[in-house]
Write a structure and sequence with these properties.
Number of strands: 0
Structural class: mainly alpha
Strand content: under 5%
Largest sheet: none
Helix content: over 70%
Order of helices and strands: HHHH
Shape: elongated
Distance between the termini: 43 Å
Radius of gyration: 14 Å
C-alpha cells in the first residue's frame, strides 16, 4: 500500500488543529480502513512482518486515543447546548 504508515493520517488530523465537532466527525479514509483490515487479517494468520506489526500497534493505540477524544468532544458539544 502506501509508503507511509496508516497511523500518520490520525496524527496529521490532530496536528493540523481541530474543533470538537471535527473530532466527532473524523473518520479514517477508505484506504486507511482497508489497510487496517489487511493488517488485522495478516495478524490473525500470524503473518505480520515486524514493520507491519509496529504499524498496526501504533494505529491501534492512536485509534483508541481518537475514540477517547471523540467521547470528550461529544461532552464538550453537549455542554454548549
Amino acid at each position: 500500500m502506501a509508503s507511509s504508515p496508516i497511523y500518520l493520517e490520525i496524527i496529521d488530523f490532530f496536528a493540523s488543529g481541530t474543533t470538537p465537532q471535527a473530532v466527532v466527525d473524523f473518520r479514517p479514509s477508505p484506504a486507511v480502513q482497508q489497510r487496517a483490515l489487511e493488517l488485522l487479517e495478516l495478524a490473525k494468520e500470524d503473518r505480520l512482518t515486524p514493520e507491519q506489526k509496529s504499524e498496526l500497534e501504533h494505529f491501534t493505540e492512536l485509534e483508541h486515543i481518537l475514540r477517547m477524544a471523540k467521547a470528550r468532544a461529544r461532552q464538550i458539544l453537549a455542554a454548549k447546548r
